[in-house]
Specification:
Number of strands of chain A: 0
CATH topology of chain A: Methane Monooxygenase Hydroxylase, Chain G, domain 1
Largest interface: A-B, 17 and 17 residues
Number of domains of chain B: 1
Distance between the termini of chain A: 51 Å
Structural class of chain B: alpha/beta
Order of helices and strands of chain A: HHHHHHH
Shape of chain A: elongated
CATH topology of chain B: Rossmann fold
Radius of gyration of chain B: 19 Å
Strand content of chain B: 15-25%
Number of helices of chain B: 11
CATH class of chain A: Mainly Alpha
CATH class of chain B: Alpha Beta
Number of strands of chain B: 10
Subunit structure (chain A): Homodimer.
Distance between the termini of chain B: 52 Å
CATH architecture of chain B: 3-Layer(aba) Sandwich
Subcellular location (chain A): Cytoplasm
Oligomer: heterodimer
CATH superfamily of chain B: P-loop containing nucleotide triphosphate hydrolases
Number of domains of chain A: 1
Strand order of the largest sheet of chain B: 6-7-8-3-9-10
Number of helices of chain A: 7
Largest sheet of chain B: 6 strands, mixed
Protein name (chain A): Phosphate-specific transport system accessory protein PhoU
CATH superfamily of chain A: Phosphate transport system protein phou homolog 2, domain 2
Radius of gyration of chain A: 20 Å
CATH architecture of chain A: Up-down Bundle
Largest sheet of chain A: none
Keywords (chain A): Cytoplasm, Phosphate transport, Transport
Helix content of chain A: over 70%
Shape of chain B: globular
InterPro entries (chain A): PhoU (IPR028366), PhoU-like_sf (IPR038078), PhoU_dom (IPR026022)
């Protein structure tokens, strides 16, 4: 991809403004994910509260990116790689905003969980999954900033691991709930947390796909390997009648 | 039978209304156009874009042999209209220009009445047998050029008294009065305001139902708005030719990318 300067230098400045906003937004979302998971693990309610409050700044940045991109489209009529850049930026900002929402939801649930007895090994497993997603997010954003096609492809395929971690957690929580119904409330919250992290992984895959589109002009069309089989797994368990209506 | 007909028309379209092979143009010793190969589709709009002096207007003028009138200009290579060599000695350039009409950058109505501007072509080509016939041709052409309603009550006023946009539409009416098969437009909107430009663009859309339209434009937005195919010329070379959508979202050649995104190339 050509990153030569425009003849109209104001065009470059506009693009740089948008890129800086997106980089800042990415940084905030990454930090929110890390903090939300740490708040869960350390039962730090103040940190969880800070994550919840921090989501406003993320939302505001998304809005600002929307305004700046709309302005760029209206005033500069971008074409080719510039057009793809603007489109990709809008979609990436939307994906990051969703990830921010998940982090906020995670923080809210961690405040509830802090009032309950801990589930053995759960927060460690969640943290490992969160670390994996955070690394994926960092790589996706690096791929965007550096226009690194290889890294973007790697992120796209890497979601498989996150899905598998989620499968494992799903079974773990089922086991805990079957062992002792008093675990159900906490496990349900933990399960939503795991699901939220898994959804973040999907949005990050979407970001990687936008980076691929930005660089090559084409969205990847081959099916990526998926490993979230819990929709099928549920059928087996309902037959046992162990957990019918949550 | 019907299917055969369809297949043939698709094949004819694939070969192009106009096809050029190895076209070279020299102005004296200046090599203005190098080895251009292109097939221009029928009933579609093709835009030629590129920086000044890239050869796009030169190539446009090859298509109706307007370059013949420029002293010191030599055109080599093969250009065919419906498979017919336009440089064949049996081809009369005047007849060719009736089939391949042209509209220029600046509106250039003849210093005659609106009616006579439009009637001029059909008259010299003997396309209307009677005054009534001619009235029909004039009205039809002015209607297709979206000018009829503006001028129906003053057909015998001077064409030069119209506004710029109207004059350009008058020139288009004049160009289509001989029912050409191809309409060449050399920056037809560069002297017009945005409203008149929009009217001409709307007209180009309609004309493309009947003719093959080729437009040279410096406005990338105009090229992307009106055309289905875009050709990018640079330093006398045809760099890239493809679907307008592809050229404007994902061009293949970096020179095209740099030009359309306004980068220093």
């Amino acid at each position: 991809m050509d990153r030569r300067q425009h003849i109209v230098t104001a065009f470059d400045r506009d693009l740089e403004t948008i890129e800086a906003l997106l980089a800042r937004m990415g940084g905030l979302v990454e930090a929110a994910v890390v903090d939300a998971i740490r708040a869960l693990e350390t039962r730090d309610e103040d940190l969880a509260e800070a994550v919840r409050r921090g989501d406003k700044a993320i939302d505001a940045l998304e809005e600002q990116i929307d305004i700046e991109t709309a302005r760029l489209i209206a005033l500069r009529a971008p074409t080719a790689s510039d057009l793809r850049y603007v489109l990709a930026t809008m979609k990436i900002a939307a994906a990051l905003e969703r990830c921010g929402d998940y982090a906020k939801n995670l923080a809210r649930r961690s405040t509830v969980l802090a009032q309950m007895p801990a589930i053995d090994g759960a927060s460690g497993s969640i943290r490992r999954m969160g670390d994996a997603v955070r690394l994926q997010m960092k790589n996706a954003l690096d791929a965007f900033i550096q226009r690194d096609l290889e890294l973007a492809e790697q992120v796209r395929l890497g979601d498989h691991d996150v899905d598998q971690m989620y499968n494992t957690l799903f079974r773990e929580f089922l086991t805990h709930m079957m062992e002792d119904p008093r675990n159900i409330t906490a496990c349900m919250h933990l399960h939503f947390i795991a699901k939220n992290i898994e959804r973040m992984g999907d949005h990050i895959t979407g970001i990687a796909e936008q980076v691929i589109y930005l660089i090559t002009g084409n969205l990847p069309d081959d099916e990526r390997p998926k490993a979230d089989h819990t929709a099928l797994a549920a059928g087996d368990h309902t037959q046992e009648g162990a957990w019918q209506s949550p | 039978m019907y299917d055969m007909g369809m297949a043939q028309s698709v094949a004819a379209e694939a070969a192009g209304k106009v096809s050029a092979r190895g076209v070279q143009v020299f102005y004296g010793t200046t090599h203005a156009l190098r080895d251009v190969d292109i097939d221009i589709a029928d009933r579609a709009v093709t835009a030629f874009i590129g920086p000044s002096g890239c050869g796009k207007s030169t190539f446009l003028r090859c298509l109706n042999r307007m370059n013949d009138t420029i002293p010191g200009c030599r055109v080599l290579g093969d250009i065919r209209l419906d498979g017919e060599d336009i440089h064949d000695p049996r081809v009369d350039p005047v007849q060719l220009r009736a089939r391949v009409g042209m509209v220029f950058q600046k509106p250039n109505p003849f210093p005659k009445s609106i009616y006579d501007n439009v009637a001029y072509g059909p008259r010299i080509h003997g396309l209307a047998r009677s005054r009534a016939d001619m009235d029909v041709v004039v009205e039809k052409s002015l209607r297709r050029a979206a000018l009829w309603n503006d001028v129906r009550d003053r057909l015998h006023d001077a064409g030069t008294g119209l506004s710029g946009g109207q004059q350009q539409r008058l020139c288009i009416a004049r160009a289509i009065a001989t029912s050409p098969e191809v309409l060449l437009m050399d920056e037809p909107c560069s002297a017009l305001d945005p409203i008149a430009t929009a009217q001409i663009e709307e007209l180009i859309h309609e004309l493309a139902d009947q003719f093959s339209v080729v437009i040279v434009t410096h406005s990338m937005q105009q090229a992307s708005r009106v055309s289905q195919h875009t050709a990018f010329f640079h330093l006398g070379e045809l760099v890239e030719y493809g679907d307008t959508e592809t050229v404007f979202t994902n061009p293949v050649d970096p020179r095209t990318e740099n030009y359309i995104t306004g980068r220093i190339g």
